[in-house]
């Protein structure tokens, strides 16, 4: 008599496959039993109201807003250079190092800080001096130019 070609491991794998098939069939039967039959298309639809929220009821046609396609801007609007009415600002020197030749001026209205170099000064400066200046954009941020001490 010959030995059986089916080993213990092969039999266990076959039993496991059969068990998985039976579990899958049971789950499918449960889903079919629990499924709500007779759901209409209207029950499955979702609507977007005038505020952009999802709702189960259709939106009110009275609240509908009409827009002109020509009035809509898609993308970022082009930057328009606006000329400041008074390019001269006033501020206070918050820090100044005379030996290194630089400091910072804080704008009196906006509170922005601007870098100032000794080449842009009309006279000697020290901390807490009130100054008038103009602003230009430098490599690292705002630069104060034409800085004059207010007496």
From TrEMBL:
Q: Which SUPFAM superfamilies match?
A: Nucleic acid-binding proteins (SSF50249)
Against InterPro entries, the record matches this protein to: CSD, CSP_DNA-bd, NA-bd_OB-fold
CDD domains reported for this sequence? CSP_CDS
Q: Which SMART domains match?
A: CSP
Pfam families per the record? Answer: CSD
PROSITE patterns found in the cross-reference section: CSD_2 (PS51857)
Region annotated Disordered sits at: 1-70
GO molecular function (one): nucleic acid binding
**CSD domain: from which residue to which, for each copy?**
88-149
Give residue spans, biased composition: Basic and acidic residues: 9-33
Write out the GO cellular component annotations: cytosol
Q: Report the protein name in the record.
A: Cold shock domain-containing protein
